[in-house]
Amino acid sequence: MPARSEYVLDSTALIALVTLEPGHRTVEEMLDRATISAVNLAETIHKLVQKGSTPRVTEALLRQLDLDVVDWSQDMAYRSAEFAVLGKSHGLSFGDRACLTLAKQLGATAVTADLAWRKVPSLSVPVLIFR
User: Fold this and answer.
1) What is the pLDDT of residue 4?
2) In the predicted model, what is the mean pLDDT of the chain?
3) Rounded to two decimals, what is the model's pTM?
4) In the sheet where 7-9 sits, what is the strand order?
5) Options 3.40.50.11780, 3.40.605.10, 3.30.2170.10, 3.40.50.1010; which CATH number does 7-129 get?
6) Domain ranges of the chain
7) Cα 70 to the chain's mean position, in Å?
């Protein structure tokens, strides 16, 4: 089990932190108690590169954060089925569902900037929308 497991970051949280978007200080304050899945880290990398960063700069920037990254395992793939219906019915992406799956596994709070998560009824995971 990861050393830091109070919070599980969605890619929106990590992107806000590194691009200094609104709410980045909230994410920064929880970083030493936070974990991110390898799925959400990959999503973050792709989005930062799409916004104009280079792969090398993005990697260097994210490695400096000394993130606690949890590999996406076969067990987690099966656990994610609980959230599968939310993708179609509530517009949650695969990355969103990966974040929720890891948060549930760790008994942690999922952290996102995605306001669509507020519209999801009865999530079995605590969620913090940081802005």
Assistant:
1) 64
2) 91
3) 0.91
4) 69-70, 34-37, 7-9, 109-112, 127-129
5) 3.40.50.1010
6) 7-129
7) 11
